[in-house]
């Protein structure tokens, strides 16, 4: 990753947690999701996944109240490199609320498929944890 990328700034709408037992990075986003915020949490996920050496990731967008992102920006983000290194070894899940739309979620999975084969869109955090085989996560807040 190029070091010229801006250091992520938490806009207050997302937070990170880490389960050191199962090595799962969890990002939760709440409120109105803007393009600026999406770009910020993309870089923050890269940073935290590297710092924690997470084996899996869950990006929980279920508390999002509004998706203020353009179709062009969605295509741009979906075309980026997988947010976690070693995408063929680390499962990642996007918890998408019903308002996000099943069609958009499936489009993301299909486009990401070849370079991000372990990326899946699910409807709940419990569904992601079940797919990882985790019954009792031990999430701790990251600063």
Task: Supply the key terms.
single chain, 143 residues, alpha/beta, Transcription Regulator spoIIAA, six-stranded mixed sheet, two-stranded parallel ribbon, 4 helices, 31% helix, globular
Describe this structure in words.
With 143 residues, the chain is α/β, with parallel strands linked by helices. It has one domain (14-142): Transcription Regulator spoIIAA (2-Layer Sandwich). 31% of the residues lie in helices and 26% in strands. It contains 4 helices and 8 strands. It has helices spanning 35-52, 71-78, 102-112, 125-132; strands at residues 14-19, 24-29, 31-34, 56-60, 64-68, 92-95, 119-122, 140-142. The chain has a 6-stranded mixed β-sheet, sandwiched between helices. Strand 1 (14-19) and strand 2 (24-29) form a beta hairpin. The longest helix has 18 residues, at 35-52. It is globular. The protein starts with 13 loop residues before the first strand and ends with a strand. The relative contact order is 0.20. Mean pLDDT is 83; it is low at 1-11.
Chain-wise SSE layout:
Layout: E1 14-19, E2 24-29, E3 31-34, H1 35-52, E4 56-60, E5 64-68, H2 71-78, E6 92-95, H3 102-112, E7 119-122, H4 125-132, E8 140-142
Parallel strand pairs: 2-4, 3-5, 4-6, 6-7
Antiparallel strand pairs: 1-2, 1-8
């Amino acid at each position: 990753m190029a070091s010229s990328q801006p250091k992520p700034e938490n806009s207050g709408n997302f937070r990170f947690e880490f389960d050191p037992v199962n090595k799962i990075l969890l990002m939760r986003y709440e409120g109105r999701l803007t393009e600026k915020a999406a770009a910020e949490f993309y870089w923050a996920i890269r940073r935290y996944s590297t710092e924690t050496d997470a084996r899996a990731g869950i990006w929980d967008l279920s508390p999002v109240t509004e998706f203020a992102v353009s179709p062009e920006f969605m295509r741009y983000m979906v075309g980026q490199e997988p947010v976690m290194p070693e995408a063929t070894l680390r499962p990642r899940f996007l918890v998408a609320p019903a308002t996000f739309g099943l069609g958009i979620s499936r489009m993301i999975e299909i486009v990401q498929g070849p370079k991000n084969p372990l990326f899946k869109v699910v409807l709940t955090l419990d569904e992601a944890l079940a797919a990882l085989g985790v019954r009792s996560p031990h999430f701790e807040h990251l600063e």
